[in-house]
């Protein structure tokens, strides 16, 4: 039986990138592969992901995380490069561990933030959903070139992110858009006066800027006091909603407004609200200098 490994340091956010990676796992499982997921966090996460994304992951194995990338929340201004918010340091011992472990696999699919990892399986796929925009010194550039020798292909989620590929990696790139299971969606329900925004309530890599949406919607309500429109903010929270300071801040902003929060929805809830909403709205990237932070 062929063996595959999957890695996603942001797995507990259960966002779009996580659905992408776990869909790869589901496809491989359906074709008779053994699939291992490098993860040392909450062991119930796969059960949560199955409910959130409606994926078949019963045979997915969880194995200890050998990469150990640590993520932290960013502030909502995004005034600093995302490299500040995840640690990529590798000791000589950790590289040896990665070699011994990943060399046992026929295939490795790794979700990263643009920094190239050391991978040593027979076929290594590096997937990124953010542009390669890191400023590197000479030593870092040489190390990245060495790492890239072991990467068979770089998979992007859009032509935009692919457009930032370094010249030395351009021959290895391919764009595969996020999959959508249209058979599970029903667009025939009556639409309601709902503005929907879906995005995690955790600031990892980028902020979904729900605070901007609330402030603009608040102005709309003040100017139209008899409106029957409602804003629904739906998304995941890694920690208990009672402990999520960003979510608490958003709820404070939304007081006395026709705004509803749906936290950690399952797939059926997502489908239902998408189906009845008239408008989809998001503010990710709003106010950001695209030349500095594309």
UniProtKB/TrEMBL annotation:
> By its UniProt entry, which InterPro entries does this protein fall under?
ALG11
Q: Which GO terms describe its cellular component?
A: membrane
Question: Which molecular function term from Gene Ontology is one that the record holds?
Answer: GDP-Man:Man(3)GlcNAc(2)-PP-Dol alpha-1,2-mannosyltransferase activity
Q: Which domain of life is it from?
A: Bacteria
Which example biological process does GO assign this protein?
protein N-linked glycosylation
SUPFAM superfamilies per the record? Answer: UDP-Glycosyltransferase/glycogen phosphorylase
* Gene3D superfamilies linked to this entry: Glycogen Phosphorylase B
What PANTHER family does this protein's entry cite? Answer: GDP-MAN:MAN(3)GLCNAC(2)-PP-DOL ALPHA-1,2-MANNOSYLTRANSFERASE
Descriptive protein name: Glycosyl transferase family 1 domain-containing protein
Source species, please?
Candidatus Shapirobacteria bacterium CG10_big_fil_rev_8_21_14_0_10_36_6
